[in-house]
Amino acid sequence: MRTLRILLGAAGAGLLTAAPALAADTPPAAAGPDNRLWLFWFLLSTLLLVLLIFLLLFVAMVVALRPQLRKLYALPTVHDSWSGQVLGLLIGDARLVTGQYRDEQLDHDYDGIREYDNDLPPWWKYGFYFTIVFAVAYLGYYHVSQRGQLQTAEYETEMQQAALLLAATPDDPTKLTTFAALTAPADLAAGKSIFATNCAPCHGANAEGKVGPNLTDAYWLHGGEINHVYKTIKYGVTSKGMVAWKGKLASKQLLQVASYIESLQGSNPSNAKEPQGEEEAPAVAKR
């Protein structure tokens, strides 16, 4: 008890001594983000210091009161109770963690082989009981009452929410643009350069088609009208390996390469790939 009183006195004196200094060093409240961050770390460190002091005081109290705790733990009404087992942890009895029976021989004898009785740790048994309760609650909530969403329904809900959020942005892939094809020689030359650098490896140098489809005939997988071509280039078609060029090319560059592709209609290059998709008349071509 004397040790406890000394620690309590030292801790109290330290806090009283540090309080004026902390008050003097604390800057006035400000709205700046740096000051708020500094205040957050100051409060967090103060909280940790207080918790550390209380932990040290608790340990000192347990050490000082250990003889009295042992007498209390020896009482029959306390020793075998759950709270008594918690008390036992404080004085060195780990039954609550390791179990009550360890390497205790039973009276079973099988051809000279004796059986040990090792009690399962209580924390393991309580955890197992919890899994049973959780499984019953999960089954009732998700499968019997159907109040909770299963994985498929949750995925569909999140996709709908994502579509709503995406549709609220000005860059909405579900809406077509209203561009007209560029016809100026400078724009078509720029589109040709972009096509040769980025598109030719899949569609061929003359758009005759290689891994990707032929872009010079009247057949289109996703529509051949200028705004459909623009959309396909911008957002890609992931399921078919068409990458999205959004963020890699500017909007005008996307329109330039789309206009260049439109200018290649009917060019009939050599080694053209077989038609893919649906045929569309040039006047109403839609991609």
Structural class: mainly alpha
In N-to-C order, the SSE pattern is HHHHHHEEHHHEHHE
Low-confidence sequence ranges: 18-31, 283-287
What is the helix content? 55-70%
The CATH fourth-level homologous superfamily of the largest domain: Cytochrome c-like domain
CATH architecture assignment of the largest domain: Orthogonal Bundle
The number of helical segments is 11
Strand percentage, roughly?
Answer: 5-15%
State the shape.
elongated
Would you kindly provide a written description of the structure presented here, covering whatever features stand out?
- With 287 residues, the chain is mainly alpha-helical.
- The chain has four domains: 2-19 and 34-64; 69-98, no CATH class; 99-149, no CATH class; 185-284, Cytochrome c-like domain (Cytochrome Bc1 Complex, Chain D, domain 2, Orthogonal Bundle), CATH 1.10.760.10.
- The protein is 57% helix and 6% strand.
- It contains eleven helices and four strands.
- It has helices spanning 2-25, 33-64, 66-73, 76-79, 82-91, 95-98, 122-144, 151-167, 185-203, 226-235, 251-263; strands spanning 104-110, 113-117, 219-220, 278-279.
- The strands form two sheets. A two-stranded antiparallel ribbon has the order 1-2.
- A hairpin with a 2-residue loop joins strand 1 and strand 2 (113-117).
- 13% of the residues are buried.
